[in-house]
Amino acid sequence: MIEFENVSKTYPNGTEALRNISVKVDDGEFVFIVGQSGAGKSTFLKLITCEERPTSGEIIVGTKKLTELRRGEVPYLRRIMGMVFQDFRLINKMTVYENVAFAMHVVGASSRDIKKRVPYILSLVNLEEKAQCHPRELSGGEQQRVGLARALVNSPKILIADEPTGNVDPALSFEIVDLLTQINSRGTTVLMVTHEHSLVKHFQKRVVEINDGTIVSDVCNWEVDA
Fold first, then answer.
1. What is the average pLDDT score of the chain?
2. Taking the CB of the first residue and of the last residue of the chain, which one, N or C, has fewer CB atoms within 10 A?
3. Distance in angstroms (rounded) separating the CA atoms of residues 114 and 100
4. DSSP percent split of the chain into helix, strand, coil, nearest 5
């Protein structure tokens, strides 16, 4: 569960990124976060991961009140989250297998668990045959699937995708979101920031729109179409 209670965020330069927003995402939901550039979408995600702290208000993730979280506890909070980025953020000198395995090394997984888990996750994203390739040998869509595999390999409760289709072809965008919906169907909560309205219309999910730092709508997609 993720809950924002009257949350505002003002940066040191005076920019008011979010203004008194309240929203709740239940376990197992899939939510699109939409809005124009500069609306506050990225700040919303950064507050969830504790990359930024709110100026006022309360944020709860699971059972944790983030305003009470000490800096040393943040890495443990992030272990329940998986992150997928627009720019992939793969390590070019590592193979596909090594990129995904690295995420398990970071949290102290055993070599035995890594050898068992990584091939399984690669099969989920249809990349088992690319395990020994390097990122530069892959298409944009394949690189994003590696990023998705890396985000999933530690079985996160929450998957946060920040414009994950921004650097792939339109046809591949639907493939990426379809994978995210499959992951969601297994119980993982998914938050996806996007500006692609075709995806939002195609996948019948909840849509939260942020504009000028406030939530201006929060509806199910069928209501939007209606």
1. 92
2. C
3. 9
4. 40, 25, 35
Gap between the Cα atoms of 29 and 185, Å rounded: 9
Long-range Cβ contacts of 129-132 (<8 Å, 24+ apart): 130/96, 131/95, 131/96, 131/97, 132/95, 132/96, 132/97
Helix (H/G/I), strand (E/B), else coil: 19: strand
Sheet containing 81-85: order of strands = 81-85, 158-162, 189-193, 30-34, 206-211, 214-220
H or E element, residue 170: helix 170-185
Stated pTM of the model:
0.89
Beta strand pairing call for 214-220 and 16-25: unpaired
Alpha carbons 146 and 122: distance in angstroms, whole number: 8
Q: Residue 171 pLDDT > 90, yes or no?
A: no
Amino acid making up residue 158 = I
Task: Return the residue matching tokens 């899939």.
Answer: 30
* CA-based end-to-end distance of the chain: 28
Gyration radius of the chain over CA positions = 18
> How many Å apart are CA 37 and CA 52, to the nearest integer?
18
d(CA 135, CA 138): 5
Tokens of 159: 């998957």
> Within 10 A of 72 (CB to CB), how many other CB atoms are there?
7
What's residue 226's pLDDT? 42
Which two three-digit tokens encode residue 166?
């921004």
Q: Quote the tokens at residue 123.
A: 């099969």
Q: Provide φ and ψ at 29, rounded to 5°.
A: -80, 155
